[in-house]
């Protein structure tokens, strides 16, 4: 046959409705040294008689799309059951647990029973977080040698922000995450940032401290697509 080429390929037979007789992947195109162009709708490959060009037609595309749409098997729209919200601990009614609505009544009852038997493993309030023993892990400031401590001048806060700071600090003190220090070398004013729910989030300005600490180098993995 003139203007043709031959190549050995492994084909997989799939029982599926499709408007196409066959789909050739990249290894097959490489085997026949074909160069496709989706922009021009053309495919070129070499033969003994020369370069062969195959041009596509918009009619073929429309026919394939029509067959593909008409042969598609309609699927029933499955409605997912709504999730259930329950309160496990009566002492903390505002802390709710969301359970999937697809569970059966038996599975839901067993899950509720399991969660209520293990209420002590959940942190219902900040004081329930025991933290990590200092013998296991301890934080220290890696200050660059020769950097003097920086102590910011105390700045006043508005009444609304002051109340938010006091509430946040009280929670941290009760949880033993923060304790009062009288002889601190580094002192930074709190920075209040308003969240989406209009409440205040207390942050700390580490600008001076970051300048005094050496930068850590975190290597990034090689990315092929650049």
Please describe what this structure looks like.
InterPro entries: DNA/RNA_pol_sf, RNA-dir_DNA_polymerase. By secondary structure, this protein is of the alpha+beta class. It folds into three domains: 1-73, no CATH class; 84-124; 159-212, no CATH class. It has helices spanning 26-31, 58-70, 105-117, 159-174, 207-212, and strands at 35-37, 42-47, 50-55, 84-87, 96-99, 190-194, 200-204. It has a three-stranded antiparallel beta sheet with strand order 1-2-3, with no helix packed on it.
Q: In what range is the share of β-strand residues?
A: 5-15%
The shape is: elongated
Strand order of the largest sheet: 1-2-3
How many separate domains make up the residues?
3
How much is the radius of gyration in Å? 34 Å
> How would you sum up the major sheet?
3 strands, antiparallel
The N- to C-terminal Cα distance equals 44 Å
What is the residue-mean pLDDT, rounded to a whole number? 79
Total helix count? 5
Number of strands: 7
State the helical fraction: 10-25%
Order of helices and strands: HEEEHEEHHEEH
Uncertain segments: none
Which structural class should the secondary elements be placed in? alpha+beta
Protein name: Reverse transcriptase domain-containing protein
InterPro entries: DNA/RNA_pol_sf, RNA-dir_DNA_polymerase
GO molecular function, one term: RNA-directed DNA polymerase activity
Organism: Tanacetum cinerariifolium
